UniProtKB/TrEMBL annotation:
Family, per entry: Belongs to the thiolase-like superfamily. HMG-CoA synthase family.
Name under which the protein is recorded: Hydroxymethylglutaryl-CoA synthase
Pfam families in the cross-refs: HMG_CoA_synt_C, HMG_CoA_synt_N
Start and end residues of each Hydroxymethylglutaryl-coenzyme A synthase N-terminal domain: 3-165
Residues involved in (3S)-3-hydroxy-3-methylglutaryl-CoA binding: 143, 242, 275
Amino acid sequence: MKIGIDKMAFATTDEYIDLRELARKRGDEPDKYTIGIGQDRQAVVPASQDIVTLGASAAEKLLTDDDKKHLSTIIVATESGIDNSKASAIYVKHLLGLDDFVRTVELKEACYSATAGIQFAKGLVTMDPQSAVLVIASDIARYGLETSGEVTQGAGAVAMLITANPHVLALEDTTVSYTKDLMDFWRPLYATEAHVDGKYSTNVYIEFFLQCWQRYRQLTGRQLADFAALAFHLPFTKMGKKALEGLLQDDHSLIAEKMREQLTASQKYCREVGNLYTGSLYLGLMSLLQNGQVKAGDRIGLFSYGSGAEGEFYSGILQAGFEKYLSNVKAELADRHQVSIEEYERQFNSQLGMNSDDIKLDWEKDPAPFVLKGQKNYKRF
Ligand code: HMG
């Protein structure tokens, strides 16, 4: 029985900054941001958005009434959740008006946990092939104003429906997970911004990718030529390039060049929004499917990475007609408007974060289908 991703949809905020402007404001060369890091724009998050509203907006785009009837479980993968106890999946379930007879849970392991969510969903659908599982990867990536990580911030959510006989990607059985206890990036419970050992984190990422890839090759006997493309977790687009070049080294064969071209296609959307943490690999996959040279029957490799750290390499086969089961990301990105760096800084500092005061937010201007209106008695509305 084939099990995998049946549909995918993406949501982000309706505002962004141009990173050339940010570079000038921070006294950096614009080329450092657009070429050295590989990012052009970054999503700006108004206080009226959090991972619940973003996740619900993405999920609303893909669920039909029929899907809702078959939904057994909602998994929200996030590392920027709003509560240390209650699962954000419960809020999402409420906002989407879903049946009470549904299981809801939140998963965490930095940027990796949506991949765990997909593997768990595959297990649930194996046990009940009529059922569907909604996996939502939703995050707001914050490092702080005037930090070296600032250029790699971002925000957004990818929602995926996992079913039998999927329309997008049928998952193959061999997956390789690799975990080590290390400190490349972390965010203690009291902190609203991440701490990071930036250069170290990029080296660990590459090492984990190569470890997973070698083991996958040993287990399956597959070579690079058996893949149409590889999709990577993209904290910034240059990271995908560093990982791929770590594998290709100086190879300029036809296959190596094809992999480089497909990587560029997978990076297109990340360049526009920044790091989505849990959702970045899956937005990269959507970008590949909507901008790359891929067709039904092709094998796609996926490398998922979460700091702390855990990596996983797995693969899937593209299904006929997959194009029709992806939300229109180009239109979503084109529909946003640019804000100034001053406005971005104001909004950055006005996010609710760990603030426990009673607050009424100025949410009327936010055109998103779901908005955060404020907070009272430690409860969000
Ligand atoms: P930095 O110190 O600002 O940058 O930090 P740099 O000085 O290393 O420069 C970056 C690149 O720009 C270099 O290229 C420069 O040569 C180049 P590279 O050597 O890396 O190829 N450069 C220029 N290029 C063209 N024209 C110029 C120019 N000037 C310089 N004029 C860093 C960069 C990414 C470390 C920082 O932004 C950071 O710490 N970001 C956050 C951490 C991160 O994203 N790590 C990625 C791996 S870990 C991961 O993926 C997990 C994560 O998503 C979180 C999770 O799992 O939860 C982060």
